Amino acid sequence: MRIFGHPLGTRRFLQLGSVLVGAVTGAVFGLVLTRLGKVATGAPPATLANYLWNAAVFAAIAAVVSPVVTWSGLRRVPLWRTVVEPLAAAVAGGCGAVILGVPVLILILPPLGLALGFANLRRRYPDPFSAHALPASLDTPRVGAPERLRSES
What we know:
- Helices cover 67% and strands 0% of the residues.
- By secondary structure, it is mainly α.
- The termini are far apart.
């Protein structure tokens, strides 16, 4: 079976890459969040089993969510930015919970940071074909529009 010779081979390769990168970044985030959670709550240091469990859970979640978000909501965004910026915002949210010293914020600020990271990318890279895109200016002729619509604008 030829995967790379197929016309959709590149897309499959990118989807598989998105799943793998999502799993790796999810695992890294699980490790960081385990440490931050222990510091924020004042609990004893995490065991190896704690780190492995959280890395596995966050890797599985990110492996599913990463391709869905990348291919549905962030199609115009460079792939490396869909990984790095939301992850950095989520880690910053976890660090904010530690700095503020409120243990319950470790459950709120990292997901909020992740969502804000995705929203920021969506704002910075709008889809020109979406219904939420700004309309063309009135003095710009519409490309591909029938002649009567070009004369109206």
